[in-house]
Amino acid sequence: MAKNKFRTIVIGKAALPIWLALLTFGLTEFFSRYPKITETVYSQVLYPIFAFCLSFLSKWFSFSLDDVFYGLLVLFVITIFLMTVFRKIKFSRFLLLVIQTLAICYVLFYWFWGFNYYRSGINNRLSIAISKPDTVQFMRVLEDLIARTNASYCNFDSISKVEINALVEASYQKHASFLKLSYPLGTRTPKPITLSSFFAKASIAGYYGPFFGEVHLNDSLLLIEYPQVLAHEFAHQFGITSEAEANFYGWLVCTQSNSKHLQYSADISMINYFLSQGRRLHNFQELVQQIQKPVIDDIRKVQKHSENMRNERIEKAAGKVNDVYLKTNKVEKGIEDYFGVVQFVMDYSTDSVAQKRVGSKKPHPHPSPK
Q1: What is the spatial distance between Cα 238 and Cα 172, in angstroms, rounded to a whole number?
Q2: Which residues contact 100 (CB under 8 A, 6 or more apart)?
Q3: What pLDDT is attached to residue 279?
Q4: In the prediction, which pLDDT does 322 show?
Q5: Helix and strand tally (H, E) in the chain?
Q6: What pLDDT, on the 0 to 100 scale, is given for residue 4?
Q7: Nearest 5°: CA angle at 123, between 354 and 320?
Q8: pTM for the predicted model, two decimal places
Q9: Which of 29, 64, 107, 25 is nearest to 233 (CA)?
Q10: Helices 260-277 and 243-255, axial angle in degrees (round to 10)
Q11: 40-43, long-range: CB < 8 A, 24+ apart
């Protein structure tokens, strides 16, 4: 009797999710060791199929299927917990259901999107040379960034989110070849985060829902922030898992758009990353003084808006969760990965060959000697 029960647990239907999770875990280890295989087999072949199917399904719903899915998961766990407390089911049954549920979520997450964490790095994929740390070069790129932000300054009274969506999509289509994207890779219909105010307290502007291929944006975003955040989340839907890489993709497609609104949104966002990295430079204040007052006012406006929405405890807790999540997926820098975009912009800005391939309308001066 005991032997039959053991066989049922180990090789029966109840064990299938667990075995699939173990298989998936084995694949994560394999893919992490062989990023070229991940890129060739999963990112370029399998993932586009999943992305197309999931986005085709989710586009028919105006609300977030991912958020509904998460809500149902929480409700399910609470229900079986209460059933256990009131002895409607045995504790062993409760434990098995929890393990099965976690296993299914684990499998779906990696097969639907997560294996992209182990693809080739951006410099390898896009053939962008890695630049060496150089303070002088950093200052030159920052000065250029400031000059372009000043030049692209505009207000957002004359543009809508629908127009921005179309412009970002068009820019991704135009630069898909350089970005090595299997365009269109499904469809992208931005949806509001169900609990936008709560996520705003955690300083979360948007997120990608891998279970239904959905792009989510926070309703509290200022319109000036919207293009860059949208382009960032679109990058995730295109299979770009790294936050730094998604930031770079978003910045590139926005700055290479014909729209000044997209250019300004991306550059003003990037300035914050560069200023954060350059605070210890001896001429930091001189660089800041190059930023024109209207741009400074917008930077302060965004900062004040974020501070008013932010809840320090919630933000800190969310940051820790995100940090653990990223490190679990072998993103060694964890939450600091967001700031890695500075290196990618430096690499691109000092690689004149890459700029020619992307067809940059606004060449970045001072390329490093090749």
Answers
A1: 10
A2: 14, 17, 18
A3: 85
A4: 72
A5: 18, 3
A6: 56
A7: 130
A8: 0.91
A9: 64
A10: 140
A11: 42/115, 42/116, 42/119, 43/115, 43/116, 43/119, 43/239
Name the residue with tokens 């250029």: 144
Quote the pLDDT of residue 359.
82
Tell me the residue length of the chain: 370
- Calculate the dihedral angle through the C-alpha atoms of 46, 52, 58, 60, rounding to the nearest 10 degrees: -160
Measured between alpha carbons, how far is 38 from 235 in angstroms, rounded to an integer?
18
What token pair was written down for 188?
A: 């992208």
- At residue 367, the pLDDT reads 43
Q: How far apart are CA 250 and CA 268, in angstroms?
A: 13
Find tokens 């679109």 and name the residue.
Answer: 234
With H, G, I as helix, E, B as strand and everything else as coil, classify residue 207.
strand
Mean pLDDT of the chain: 91
Backbone phi and psi for residue 216, each to the nearest 5 degrees, phi listed first: -115, 135
Amino acid identity at 275:
L
| Cα separation, 310 vs 41, whole angstroms | 41
Structure tokens at 176: 């898909």
Which residues of the chain are modeled with pLDDT < 50?
1, 335, 363-370
Amino acid at 89: I
* Model pLDDT, residue 320: 76
Angle at 213 between CA 209 and CA 216, to 5 degrees: 45
Identify residue 121 by its one-letter amino acid code.
G
DSSP string computed for 210-265: TTTTEEEE-TT--TTTHHHHHHHHHHHHTT---HHHHHHHHHHHHHTSS-HHHHHH
